[in-house]
User: Which sequence fits this backbone?
């Protein structure tokens, strides 16, 4: 009995020591430096509002703050994971017509000037191109996000009211995107192309063009004791092999969002087993754009045949080696919040058994007057970038099996968007990234009549009504149902057939803590809570 | 000599003028411009915003006005402003030049140190096992692109010892040993290819000279074989090697794109490619002109060296 008591006491002591050690190991340590991967130089400096590329938004995140932001420690992004940043709290009023933000009073810009409601009004008047805006952006890619804002009022220095034309619960999510930082009113917007005056946890120390961006801790950050790290360096490495080697060799601590494929992560893990790999959704889809204003894709039967012809599962295996998932126009759970899960996709064009789907496609092609003897000849365009070309090559092979002979035309990045916006193409293999996993951000941008990013130029009044209705729906469950119907409608119309949603295998060294990747590549990396124990 | 130099400088000026025209026209012939790229990063196009940006950057002016404006500013040392970075072009170009020049010079030193002695040995030991072995090594050097070798170096290092050279530029004043390592590996990758070329040129030139009467005379006079080879034969065989060195240097200044990219060195060539893909005309035009000046100057230097190395060479007649 005595021996048992001693053994029990020893076990308890070991357990307590182990728990204490774990607790100690998990206690954030201040100080230190991180090297973070960047795959290309900042395309427009820190001018986040003038670009839609992660190469600008990701390395700019530590400099800025939003009114609200997605919880950096939670992988999923939704209304439930919103946390205050520059706004201490917020309140929907007048049946979701007015959104009131109560701002923090202890925030300073990096140049020492106080942050006030004037900065918020300045930013959003500029973004929505209000007549009273004090500044204009050179390029304004997300103007459509704010189309429902009637006015932004600075009620007092620390209160801002967003007056909406109609209820729009999605607005909060768009305000939380990495693409929606608050700019300083006392600084010209153009100056963000060369430097950064923000309120964020880190200040820009130096931007060596084509080499790196160095940050130092902001000692006046409004959250006391944050950030933990002293310095950050975003290292630009354009060669993919060198990037991966640098991560493997420990020259970099953190990979780049959306950069690590399944195969690459497996190789890395094999070489360095201690690396921490987290599979997450990118909110980037492979999709087909078909110009509905030009023959032959003005014929809905041919569009539908294209959608039926492409074996999505085959594409995921052949092109992404399993590193992507099936989904319609919104990313499916658990990688997204609003998308249709796989069982629901089964009846939609292209998601059934490949042989059956191809039969249907051939039948549709025959109805449109095309047979194997008289194939439809088209030109498929894509960007001259490997990820686009690989996908396009797979698609060409699939189309050939249903009587569509497609030749590939690779288009340089410099021409791609101009060509797509003008509609100077028949059919294209495209990638679309969503700034935020939100129905409004996606549908108004990519499917709404007249939107410059609606490359297919698909315009359907019924669909527009469905988009508006879901946008105003305040009951989340009801909204989910409406969104399922909308997604089905879009796939049945082959408006922009979605082929897959890509996954990222975000990789960090084990000494990096609290760098939690999100199911969206654009909205994590503020670095406030990140720390290292080495 | 003065007349010759004046002639060469005159030709150089004409060449530069021609180059400026060619690069200006070729850049404008390439599809798309900086405005397209800017909209590309935004993912859409807006015609009215497009017009405003064209006006802001001066791209709405007639081409000949843009050309004259560039040359006029270039003549007074004003390289214009980078479209992409919104900063003076010189501010961006200046730090790139020492990196590329250092890498090119180091590569050439390695090439000469490896290529010339092996070329001499190969010629002296013609048709022996050693000659064959050295020829195989040199053929391998010519067959392996330096960028491939660079990538192999990186991959082998990371796979075997889990280490690669620094991925951000380390200044020699900051940490010389690390700086040396950072440059030595790419220089070896590039220098090996160049050394193969130099080895073959040295070998063939030396073989030709070794058959000359004055070499036989030197040997007949009882001079040591070492003296015959290094003092008499090599001195006369070196002119083609010097020519190759000049050409290689000029080539390396603009031709290190992939090596700089693989080793992540912030040099001229890597930046030039980025600038081309961004259609950043002021950066591209001025970098190409810089490379053209280097080519002209290195050729001129080689021609001047002929006179030093071989007193029989006369200029200006």
Assistant:
């Amino acid at each position: 009995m005595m021996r048992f008591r001693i053994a029990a006491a020893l076990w308890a002591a070991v357990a307590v020591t182990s728990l204490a050690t774990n607790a100690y190991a998990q206690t954030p340590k201040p100080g230190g430096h991180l090297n973070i991967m960047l795959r290309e130089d900042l395309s427009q400096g820190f001018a986040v509002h003038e670009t839609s590329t992660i190469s600008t938004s990701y390395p700019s995140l530590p400099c800025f703050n939003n009114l609200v932001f997605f919880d950096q420690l939670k992988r999923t992004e939704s209304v439930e994971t919103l946390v205050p940043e520059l706004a201490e709290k917020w309140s929907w009023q007048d049946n979701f017509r007015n959104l009131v933000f109560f701002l923090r009073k202890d925030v300073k810009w990096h140049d020492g000037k106080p942050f006030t409601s004037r900065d918020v009004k300045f930013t959003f008047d500029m973004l929505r191109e209000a007549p009273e805006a004090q500044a204009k952006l050179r390029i304004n890619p997300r103007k459509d996000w704010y189309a429902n804002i009637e006015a932004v009022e600075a009620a007092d220095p620390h209160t801002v009211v967003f007056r909406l034309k109609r209820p729009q619960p999605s607005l909060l999510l768009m305000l939380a995107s990495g693409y929606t930082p608050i700019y300083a009113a006392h600084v010209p917007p153009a100056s963000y192309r060369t430097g950064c005056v923000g309120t964020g946890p880190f200040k820009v120390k130096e931007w060596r063009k084509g080499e790196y961006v160095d940050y130092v801790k902001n000692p006046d950050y409004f959250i006391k004791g944050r950030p933990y790290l002293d310095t950050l360096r975003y290292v630009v490495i354009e060669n993919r092999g060198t990037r991966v080697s640098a991560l493997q060799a420990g020259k970099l601590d953190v990979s780049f969002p959306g950069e690590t494929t399944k195969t690459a992560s497996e190789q890395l893990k094999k070489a360095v087993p201690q690396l921490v790999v987290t599979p997450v959704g990118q909110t980037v889809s492979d999709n087909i754009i078909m110009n509905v204003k030009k023959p032959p894709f003005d014929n809905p039967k041919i569009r539908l045949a294209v959608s039926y012809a492409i074996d999505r599962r085959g594409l995921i295996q052949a092109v992404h080696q399993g590193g992507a998932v099936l989904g319609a126009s919104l990313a499916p759970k658990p990688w997204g919040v609003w998308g249709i899960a796989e069982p629901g996709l089964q009846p939609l064009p292209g998601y059934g058994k490949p042989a059956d789907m191809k039969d249907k496609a051939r039948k549709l092609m025959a109805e449109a007057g095309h047979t194997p003897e008289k194939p439809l000849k088209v030109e498929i365009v894509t960007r001259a970038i490997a990820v686009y070309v690989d996908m396009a090559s797979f698609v060409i092979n699939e189309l050939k099996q249903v009587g569509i002979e497609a030749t590939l035309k690779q288009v340089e990045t410099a021409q791609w968007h101009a060509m797509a916006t003008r509609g100077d193409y028949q059919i294209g293999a495209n990638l679309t990234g969503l700034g935020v996993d939100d129905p409004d951000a996606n549908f108004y941008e990519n499917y709404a009549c007249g939107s410059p990013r609606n490359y297919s130029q698909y315009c359907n009044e019924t669909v527009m009504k469905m988009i508006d209705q879901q946008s105003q729906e305040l009951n989340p469950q009801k909204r989910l149902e409406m969104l399922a119907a909308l997604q089905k409608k879009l796939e049945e119309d082959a408006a922009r057939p979605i082929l897959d949603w890509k996954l990222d295998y975000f990789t960090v060294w084990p000494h990096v803590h609290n760098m939690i990747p999100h199911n969206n590549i654009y909205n994590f990396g503020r670095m406030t809570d990140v720390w290292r124990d080495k | 000599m003065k007349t010759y130099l004046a002639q060469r400088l005159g030709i150089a000026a004409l060449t530069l003028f021609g180059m400026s025209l060619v690069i200006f026209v070729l850049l404008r012939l390439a599809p798309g411009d900086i405005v397209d790229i800017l909209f590309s990063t935004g993912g859409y196009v807006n015609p009215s915003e497009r017009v405003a940006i064209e006006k802001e950057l001066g791209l709405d002016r007639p081409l000949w006005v843009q050309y004259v404006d560039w040359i006029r500013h270039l003549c007074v040392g004003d390289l214009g402003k980078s479209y992409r970075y919104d900063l003076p072009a010189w501010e961006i170009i200046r730090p790139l030049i020492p990196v590329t020049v250092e890498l090119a010079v180091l590569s050439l030193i390695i090439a000469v140190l490896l290529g010339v002695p092996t070329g001499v040995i190969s010629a002296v030991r013609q048709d022996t096992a050693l000659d064959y072995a050295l020829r195989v090594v040199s053929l391998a050097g010519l067959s392996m692109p330096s960028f491939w070798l660079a990538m192999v170096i990186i991959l082998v290092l990371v796979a075997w010892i889990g280490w690669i050279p620094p991925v951000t530029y380390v200044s020699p004043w900051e940490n010389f040993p690390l700086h040396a390592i950072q440059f030595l590996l790419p220089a070896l990758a590039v220098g090996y290819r160049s050394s193969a070329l130099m080895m073959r040129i040295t070998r063939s030139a030396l073989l030709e000279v070794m058959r000359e009467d004055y070499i036989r005379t030197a040997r007949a006079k009882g001079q040591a074989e070492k003296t015959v080879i290094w003092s008499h034969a090599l001195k006369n065989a070196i002119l083609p090697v010097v020519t190759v060195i000049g050409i290689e240097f000029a080539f390396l200044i603009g031709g290190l794109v992939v090596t700089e990219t693989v080793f992540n060195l912030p040099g001229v060539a890597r930046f030039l490619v980025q600038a081309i893909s961004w259609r950043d005309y002021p950066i591209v035009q001025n970098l190409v002109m810089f490379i053209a000046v280097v080519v002209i100057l290195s050729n001129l230097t080689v021609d001047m060296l002929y006179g030093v190395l071989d007193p029989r060479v006369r200029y200006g007649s």
